[in-house]
Amino acid sequence: MAFTRSSTGHSKPRVQLNISTEPERRRTTTKHTTTTTGRRGHHAGMTTQPATHHHRKPHLSDKIKGAAKKLNGTLTRRPGKKAAGTRQMRGTDGKGSRVTRV
Questions:
Q1: pLDDT, tens only, 20-71
Q2: 74: closest CA among 63, 64, 86?
Q3: Smallest Cα–Cα separation from 60: which of 84, 81, 96, 91?
Q4: Are 76 and 98 in contact (CB under 8 A)?
Q5: Composition of the chain by helix, strand, coil, percent to 5
Q6: Which residue, among 59, 36, 57, has the nearest Cα to 46 in the 3D structure?
Q7: What is the pLDDT at residue 17?
Q8: Where do the structural domains in the chain lie, given as residue ranges?
Q9: Are 63 and 57 in contact (CB under 8 A)?
């Protein structure tokens, strides 16, 4: 005959330890600062910004065409076409950057 916990008198609820006993790892955050050696005045302690992509002001037609390209890339499962549509909508597709100035 099999004994159950209730018949043996050990019917207390089973409590499992939900708290992790592993040592906690510290998350380090990196601060993007330039070195201040040799720089005094307003350049001392200057933080560097992440690189930004040059873009032009997209027209309404660019937004519509880019949305159509993005939808086409989504439906055909072509991530390159989808990304091209996103770039055209945001104005970062490089259109207008190859203009010869006289």
A1: 777 777 777 776 655 555 555 555 566 677 777 678 899 999 999 999 999 9
A2: 86
A3: 91
A4: no
A5: 35, 0, 65
A6: 36
A7: 61
A8: 60-92
A9: no
